[in-house]
Amino acid sequence: MSSVDRRLQGVLLLLGVWIAALLIYPMVGSQVLSWRDLFTGETTTAVIFWKLRLPRALLGLLAGGSLAVSGLTLQTLFRNPLAEPYTLGVASGAALGAVLALLLGGSGVGTSFPTVGLSSLLGALAVAALLVALSSSRFGGDSSTLLLAGIAISLSCSALILFVQFLADFTQTFRMVRWMMGGLAVVGFREVLWVSHIAISGVAILFGYRRELDLLLAGDELASSRGLDLIRFRCVALGVTSIVIGGIVAVAGPIGFVGLIVPHILRRWLGHAHLYLIPACALGGGAFLTMCDLAARTILAPAELPVGILTALLGGPFFVWLLLRRRVVH
């Protein structure tokens, strides 16, 4: 079997897993549903399925896939296996924007979703603009320096988030802390439809740049010799990933490490060609986050564990393993 056939079969297998996650997730939880009750029109089952479980499943598939593709893109841009939306500060900037919107929106539940969403997008774009300014001026696009700058920006945003929480009242602080844990709980399809335009468009644009991403893997000099404008391309790719991350964070909160774990696993399995890696990450990341959320919903049933806590518990040891592996290789 050729390598192309093997990678194509891998993507098709992930598509099967993605479909299985979509079919299984809505039926499992503190109350197990059956397809028979759903098709016969049983009222309680229909409400749970259409209002709660299916929107949550679709949001998990969209968010997980988008975060995984964003992490893959950032790792390629900076040629660093530790790069992902949170280590570069883009997700932290989005979280800071959303937290500020929650603070300025008052103590009640009247803070509108579009306001939080737009604030999150602006926060992500502000961090991306700062990274672009650093890359195009003083540092000349040096990937390692930009990664360190991103980590510093992330820490600064985290400190500002704590300061905002200090200024907030009890109700606002509770909402902020709960939102910062990350979660996929939504009612209806409003948030899903809003984020689907951003996620699908962003992944499609990045897939269109698959050749440029492949060139970056060979090094900046070879990519430049093939006609790639490195600074311009990094600006475009950072802008697209920032918009995608901002949209996801606005709806689901900061869910970490999906963009770190999934690309590494799939890269070791399918190789480095973005023609296969981008769709694989979109499918595998969605299935991964959806299954994590399913576990978070059932571990402490009827209570629900925020999925961001579970991904952090998985991502911490994975991050340490990557550091140890790099040390052994070097």
Percent of residues in helices comes to over 70%
Strand content: under 5%
**Helical segment count:** 14
Task: Output the helix-strand order.
Answer: HHHHHHHHHHHHHH
Q: What's the gyration radius in Å?
A: 20 Å
Major sheet details: none
Please tell me what the overall shape is. globular
Low-confidence stretches: 106-111
Number of strands: 0
Give the rounded overall mean pLDDT: 85
Distance between the termini: 33 Å
Helix and strand content put the structural class at: mainly alpha
Question: How would you describe this structure to a colleague?
Answer:
With 330 residues, the protein is mostly helical. Helices cover 78% and strands 0% of the residues. It has 14 helices and no strands. Helix 3 runs parallel beside helix 8, helix 5 runs antiparallel to helix 11 and helix 8 packs antiparallel against helix 11. It is globular and about 65 Å long. The two termini are 33 Å apart.
Task: Kindly list the characteristics that best describe this protein.
globular, 14 helices, mainly alpha, 330 residues
Task: Describe the structure concisely for a colleague.
This protein is mainly α and 330 residues long.
List the helices and strands and how they pair.
Layout: H1 3-24, H2 35-39, H3 43-78, H4 90-104, H5 113-136, H6 143-167, H7 170-180, H8 190-208, H9 210-217, H10 220-225, H11 230-252, H12 258-270, H13 274-299, H14 307-329
Helix pairs in contact: 1-13, 3-8, 3-11, 3-12, 3-13, 4-5, 4-6, 4-7, 4-11, 5-6, 5-11, 8-11, 12-13
